[in-house]
Each structure stands twice: as C-alpha cells, then as structure tokens.
Amino acid sequence: MAKSAFLKSSIAKKYWMALTGLFLCLFLVGHLLGNLQLLAGRTTEAALQFNKYALFMTSNPAVKVLSYLTYISILFHAIDGIALAIQNKKARPVNYAYKNDSVSSSFSSRNMAVLGTLVLVFIATHMVNFWAKMHFDKKMPLQTITAENMGQKIDFYISTNNGLAGNDPFLGKFIPASAVDGKYYFVEGNSIYLNREFKDVNDGNKVKKEKIKIAEGYKDLHKITIEFFKSQGKLFGAIPNEGLLFTIFYVFSMAVLGFHLWHGFQSAFQSLGINNRFTPAIQLFGKAFSVLVPLLFAIIPVYIHFILK
C-alpha cells in the first residue's frame, strides 16, 4: 500500500518528470548534431552524408532501442506533466487573495504545462512530416547522383553495398536509374529488386515470377527536408508559400522549447534533490542549454529557406 501511494504521489511524479526530461535533453543534443549536417548545403556529398546518418538512425539495433526509449519518455513526460498540473491544481483549489506571479515565479515556471503541450504538438507534426515518411512512405525517393557521359546526363542510384550478385556491373555501387523501370527492376522501400520470370519444372513448367533483392539505396531524407522548407506551394491549397510558414512554425516551436527548457532543466536537478555548491553552475548551464540548443535547431530551417540555393 505504501509503495502504491508513493508511486501516485507528486514526489514520484516529479522524479519521473526529471529523469525523462533529462533523457530527452540528451536526445535533443544527438538529434541536433545530426541535423546540423543540413547546413553543409545541397552537394551530393552533403546529401549522402546526411542520408547515411538517417539510415543509421533508422536501422542500427542499438539506436532503435534508444528510439523506443525516447518515444516512451516523450509520452511519459507529457502524461506525467498533465497529471502533476492537475494534482497541483487540486491541492490548491482556491487562489490566494493576492498573488504577484511576476515576482514569485518566472514566465516559464508558471506556464510549463502550456509550453509542454505546444512542444508536444510540434513533435507530433514533426514526426508526421519526417519520421513517418522515412519509415512508412513507399514513395520516398532514393538518392541519385548525376554523371555525364559523352554529353548525356545519366542518373544513378547509390547502393549501400557493393552489389549482391558477384561482379555484375549493374549490381555494383551505382545502379542506372533508367534501368529501374518498374517492370524488370523496381524499387520497394529503400530496396531495388529484380522481377525475374522462370519456368518451374516441378510444376508443369508454369511461368512464375520471383523478386530478387539486388541492392539497397539511401532514402533521400535530405531532399525531402530541403523541399519541405523551400516549398513555394500552397498550404491546404489556399495559403501561399507554405515553406515560409513551415519555417516560421518551426522557429516559433523552438522558442517555445527554449522557454520550456529554461525552467525545466534546472528544475529537474532540483526535483532529484541535487542542491549543493554545484547548483549555480547547473543553473547557468541550464540557461545556456535552453538558449543555444533551440537556437541552433531554429537556424537550420531559416538557412534552408532564405539562404540555401
């Protein structure tokens, strides 16, 4: 009974809020380091490096485990935050006769629930536009490079391996995109298959088909991201220059994240009982973190939309 009461207490909720919050701060740093590669421009090398990073983040077993921990932490952090806000409200149903919030607490601390909700909305839209496409969009393009031969430009898919069928030049590192016509060779996910017909001697020489995986390519998340923020299309078919609106929304969301971190970072250490001579340093680092990390995130879409050619 005592254990159950503790798990339901505000103290336990604050512990979990602190732990999940600090874990998500580590995730932000890792995600930022990967996304900063977008500042390298639109060259083939820059795109390939970013797409290699994206492939690693979606296929490495250890990263997958960390990703699931991140998803769980986001949900737990959000649910726990809502529960804490409700619990605190119930604990003091009657407001003070006079309360000067601007003196007793900061804007961030007074609005953590609202700020957290806005961050959650951003995460949901961000995952729909990028994470979901990377994982589930069957029409996700594969990265290609263009080579010129005798005045003719030819596009090639870049294989993640050195071919799966010996020394066949077609199945090497670079695969002519024109040969992948959807009939004999076709793309499914990030894999390129050969659609082979054969006669099954064990079944009356009936003509059958089998698909043989010949190579894997790099999903072009770099291209998707650049086009997202540079899009000149209409949002919902009505509002022009959707790329600009996406950029503004992203920057606004990073400002909200900054305010959320401004109070949340140092509050996490306080909730864990870390109050000692290192507290001033923790507070200083937390404020620097809450400004620098969202700012660097915000620079990326601004650079893509306004500067990148």
Q: What's the N-to-C terminus distance?
A: 64 Å
The biggest beta sheet reads: 3 strands, antiparallel
Helix content: 55-70%
Number of strands: 6
Number of helices: 10
Percent range for β-strand residues: 5-15%
Order of helices and strands: HHHHHHHEEEEEEHHH
Low-pLDDT segments: 1-7
Overall pLDDT: 87
Radius of gyration: 25 Å
Describe how the helices and strands are arranged:
Layout: H1 2-8, H2 10-35, H3 44-59, H4 61-91, H5 101-104, H6 107-110, H7 112-136, E1 144-149, E2 152-158, E3 174-176, E4 185-188, E5 191-200, E6 206-216, H8 221-230, H9 242-271, H10 279-307
Antiparallel strand pairs: 1-2, 2-3, 4-5, 5-6
3D architecture notes:
The chain has 309 residues and is α+β, with helices and mostly antiparallel strands. It is 59% helix and 13% strand. The protein contains 10 helices and 6 strands, in the order αααααααββββββααα. The longest helix has 31 residues, at 61-91. It is elongated. The model is unreliable at 1-7 (pLDDT under 50).
Could you name the key traits of this structure?
single chain, alpha+beta, 6 strands, elongated, three-stranded antiparallel sheet, about 300 residues
Task: Give a concise summary.
With 309 residues, the protein is α+β, with helices and mostly antiparallel strands.
